[in-house]
Amino acid sequence: MTQEEIVKILKVGVLLSYERDLNRLLEEILACLMDLAHCDAGTLYLLDGDALRFKIMRNDTLQTYDGGDGKDPDLPPVPLRRENVCALSIIEDRTVRIEDVYTSTECDFSGAARYDAITGYHTQSMLVVPLRNRQGQKLGVIQLLNALDRDGNICAFTEDNALMLESVGSQAAITIQNVRYIEEIKDLFQSFVRVMSSAVDERTPYNGSHTRHMVAYGERFLDYLNRLARARGEPERFVGDRREELLLSVWLHDIGKLVIPLGIMNKEGRMTPKQYTDFVHRMQVIRLRAEIDELKGKLTAEERQELVRQTHEAEELIAVCNSAGVLSENRVAALDVLAARTYEAEDGTFRPWLPPEEHRMMDIRKGTLSDEERAVMQDHVVVTSKLLGEINFPGEYAHVRDWASMHHEFLDGSGYPHGLRGEQIPVEVRIVTILDIFDALTADDRPYKPGIPVEKALVILDGMANREGKLDPELTRLFIESRCWEQEGAP
pTM score, two decimals? Predict the structure, then answer.
């Protein structure tokens, strides 16, 4: 073994020690093994059930490179039958070395002949090495074609080639298995995250698709930002672990709502259901008392009818105001008048038509939550931070807790829970905040308001960015420009 070959093997070892992306790993393994064997073409297969699936293909003469983008080559899998040389290698767990496929009788090489006829390539020498891990588990096969001598002529693969590739292939198989284990653990973790997020949505009939919408919009928006970066010749910012970390933050941003009382989460009106029922019952009592007073001669028929009319008007006022998104000054004044009215109860005491606590709830100018209820609702971000603090996130997900629990912070410091401002808010959080606000504005399943048209929501986002200083102006502009909510498959 030459000094140059030793150096190449050491470089392969370094590669195998740090690469954790399976597609890039497979591509690099094949490239390194082709370099070690000094050959012209190669294919890496992975075992899938009772067949070998093409994962990476490379042919330097034809300048074809397939599979490195994570999409498998569009070729049928190779059945595990001994007539197929790559299948023979993994079935018998041995290296197969062929000097000339056109004169060999060991396997059926008609497929290679058809490939040559179609492409004009000439397949001659071949080396096939099985991949297996420490436990002897078979993982796949590496097939190399056309070893080249120093003058670039096709020659046979040597025994030394086979020994080197068997050694490196064994290391590669272990790394492939480890990377697969890591991916399986990540998939399990992400499945758990999606389940927990769904648990939040399933607690209430309202807002049930909020997180899924945000993730879908977020994926497309990040893709858009990456495309812009590529067009400018700049590195893509939201790929790999950073992309996964941001999307995990979206999935988990509302996890704290698991502990928010449903009476607040599902509150459709300013009054609680009990308060509303009590008010309607009180109007019925007033009407019944009026009938009694008419019978006793305390009220004329006209006075009773007028009182009945007024109670129905009061019920209509409460019904309208209870579910209104915003209370006008006229309605606030009408509620004040209603709260000042009294009626005589059965015990002779005079009681308000609209008692102070009900009046206080009806006096909520925007939305359905009182200050106390809103404080409980806003506390979900604090709970999110606490819950996620109990999870030992690996290094590549180290920011998930902070990013998920900061999505209600605004650049001008008016957000919560910490009133962060400016550069204290990472760009990832700014993105999550835009996604959250957009879906909240356009959602048609909120208990306290109807959804608004998309274009109106975009005007509001623009105003929050450029007039109020709450959102990142450039990210807001790019979000609007991306139209990520209306692409194919949008929820």
Answer: 0.65
